[in-house]
Each structure stands twice: as C-alpha cells, then as structure tokens.
Amino acid sequence: MNNRIKRYFDDSDPRFIVFPNKIYAINYKKIISLEENRVSILFNNKRIIFKGNNFILYKLLDYEVLINGKVSSIEVFDV
Q: Within 13 Å and on the Cβ side, how many CA atoms surround 53?
C-alpha cells in the first residue's frame, strides 16, 4: 500500500487535460511552438499539436502549464 501512495504523490507521467476553453499540460518536456492558433508540446515520446483560436500561455510551475483558448483539434505524433 505504501508503494501505491508513493506513486500517487510522485507522479511524473506526462499528460494533458483539455477543457472547453483551456489546455492543462503536466510533466511535458518542451513547448515547441506557441502561436495564436496553434500550440505544439513535446511529451516523452509524443508530439501533441493543438489547433484552435486565441491561445494564451500561463505558466504555472516547472513542467506545468495552462493554455487558454478554444481548442478545435488535437493531433498526436510519435517522435
């Protein structure tokens, strides 16, 4: 049980959560590009491209960002 609790608090898995008007990315490697209508983020072995409108980046913590804007599509590529 202690291992399960430790894994919960020591979570280093990359992931993103998409809300209607924002993207929350955690444990990413690098933000490749940020434009008003396109955001490209590198995770461990994936490159995720978000397309939409009015993207604005709000950096929260190291390797944790919030991007406001309307998401219209998501593309995933192996790197």
A: 3
